[in-house]
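Case study 2.
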Amino acid sequence: MNMQEAKPQKVKYKSKQRGIGLAFTMDLKLTDLIRAAFDVEGLQEAEIVKGNVQSAVDLFASSASPQFLVIDISGTPDPILSMENLATLCDPSTSVIVIGEDNDVKLFRSLLMLGVQDYLVKPLTQSMLEESISIAREALLQSKPDAATHKSHVIGVLGIRGGMGATTVTTSMAMDFAENHNKNTVILDLDPYFGTCNFVFDIEAGRGLSDALENPNRVDSLFIDRAISRESENLAILSAETPLNRPLSVDSNAIAHLIHELKSTYEIVIVDIPRMLITENPSLAVDFDDIFLVGQYTLASARDTIRILSLLALNAANAKTHILINQHNKNENNELTRSEFEDSIERKVDQQIPFDDKAFFEAVKISKPLFAAASGSVLRAFKTLPLLTTAKEMLDEKAINDAKKLGKDSEESEGGLLSGLFKKTKDKAENKTTAGDDDSAGRSNTNKKVRPAKKKRPRPQGKGPGKRRRQT
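Prediction:
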């Protein structure tokens, strides 16, 4: 936390997301106390600004108020009027602690009526300030909805093998939920070393995820607000870029606690799950509502799909699993056809996403998920994914209708989303043939050449390559 000089009109303090804590004081001795108290309460990223109530008013006129606000009103000519002006600019959920020099009951009651959490009189000790911040923190936590009553869905995305495109699916689906369905959505990238969800949005990863996994007891809604990176009003990302020489043990209980806290704040929690993590901690998927397995039409993908489905059947029996084939048209000759793949895993593929290199490079150029640059069959495929989940009941009706207009769900036919497109192409060809027949109906067939059908030569039994005639 750095002391900043207050400017005559505005204090330069701008953040893309709402700050965790902020303090205004002109008292250097009080500054040291506030800094120490913030550190003890886990608010290391909170800032202390050299200023007064008017400095806070100037600031919050153009930016959001923090979750915690400490204001020193010492020397303010009319503290009540100044605090009234500040109250009109602060978010109702901001917890405010006021510090002053006057031990006045009337002043204390007036501040409480304005919604101030506590009023502390100088001189004060660090323990007094810590206790006040702790009480305000507890009150703020209790004011937030609990995960038990808050309606939320947890969706896991798991690549069957490396390079299947699980992160592409995670970020694209999250963007669809946030923008088209207006759902408060968070992406949890559980790969603390090599996760790339933040890369997709060109957002710098913090160390919040690493801290959450190492110290689960510190994780609460306030910790999460401090640790996340916000892409937009409805979309946040919790990721990390842990140094490779820093050992990090991941415990399934720590992940479960983290997801529980995320559910208390966000409506949609989408988890990008590393393959090795699910094998080492299979119980982490217990609370998932939906799990997407992303693969391709290969023998290895089919084998590992069977193995992971068996693992999930034992550890996430309540989760609805979806088989998603990514880039199914990238190679002309896949190792397996769709029917062969489905026969191998003994269930149907729920969705296919075509390969589109132009859309991919465009998405990289604009620092957005593939969903933002996709069109045609790729966009249709992505828009269908939220409709497959158990969260469908809480989705925006208009967005659902728009998705249905783009194409039919893959469950309706063998051809998946592209079946509608193929049907139109087939109908068009048939109509063209019919029209050609109608045009030639009145013409003479005298000059029409008819080519005889080629007869297939029967292949002798036992004379194929490498075969010998069977002795009888």
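Confidence is low (pLDDT under 50) at residues 1-17, 409-472.
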